Amino acid sequence: MTNTPKPNEPIVKHIFTADPSAHVFEGKLYIYPSHDLDHDGPDNDNGDQYKMEDYHVLSMDDFNSPVVDHGEALHVKDVPWASKQMWAPDAAFKNDTYYLFFPARDHDGIFRIGVATSKRPEGPFKAEENYIPGSYSIDPAVFVDDDNRAYCYFGGLWGGQLEKWQTGTFVEDAEGPAESEPALGPIVAELSDDMLTFKSKKEISIVDENGNPLLAGDTERRFFEGPWVHKYNGYYYLSYSTGDTHTLVYAMSKNPEGPFEFKGKILTPVIGWTTHHSIVQFEDKWYLFYHDASLSGGVNHKRSVKFTELKYNEDGTIQTIEYKA
């Protein structure tokens, strides 16, 4: 248990946490972050420094209550198909069951997406024997719509291997599209009723105000990693990280599978290489959960989860949040 969290400060300091997926379950806030190991290895663009092995679930009754660390919810040694790098997870509730969706490298070094289940939001979670058939890349985010249909959004460039799947099969030395070509979008897959397989799968198109696809060279706006979808006043909001330009941005649609029209920035660059986020409504306000590397003095693989209030304009657009260390 920790002190009561404050906006723009680490919600826990006893472990390094990142990639927070926040949800309201059973009237409480639950945060599903990744767990950065404290080591002194080098950083690289392939993400080898992110050696995460397990997940801890955090919760708080409200923003005036201490954060509770419920301990280890799932470890890579308990996932038969996985070898290493338990990166950014997400959780969902359906069928009276809590589902934890997570990426990890399989025994061939290819990122896949797995599922684990529990009857409690804090776990512990039991992993399925195999990853989701047809899954690849990283950063799963699961959205259960008002009609109870569930969608899994996923994908990440560079170390996330999304470029390697452009042909539908894994190509080790594949590169992304040219700067003048449409950028790669995240993948959306409708989940089966039991949440364990994909019914369908497609790439999301993110377009500008004229309906033209964002280009790969448009690094201030194009998708890089960390997709998240939430719904507000009848619109679906796809938010994500631009990666090497270090910004959280968003696009809007009337359809959960897109196309999504780019709208603008959510969060300006943080301390650390990039950030990864979630957006959740709790009681009568909306909140952005994100991470930075301020607690470690800027070490990219020693990050900390934070939160701040998120506000909308009357037309449904999101007000840009200026990062405060």
From TrEMBL:
Cross-referenced InterPro entries: Glyco_hydro_43 (IPR006710), Glyco_hydro_beta-prop_sf (IPR023296), Glycosyl_Hydrlase_43_Enz (IPR052176)
Domain of life according to the entry: Bacteria
Pfam families attached to this UniProt entry: Glyco_hydro_43 (PF04616)
Keyword set includes Hydrolase: yes
Keywords, comma-separated and alphabetical: Carbohydrate metabolism, Glycosidase, Hydrolase, Polysaccharide degradation, Xylan degradation
GO molecular function, one term: hydrolase activity
Gene3D superfamilies the UniProt entry points to: Glycosyl hydrolase domain, family 43 (2.115.10.20)
Family note: Belongs to the glycosyl hydrolase 43 family.
Name the UniProt record assigns to this protein: Glycoside hydrolase family 43 protein
Organism of provenance: Mesobacillus maritimus
Phylogenetic lineage: Bacteria, Bacillati, Bacillota, Bacilli, Bacillales
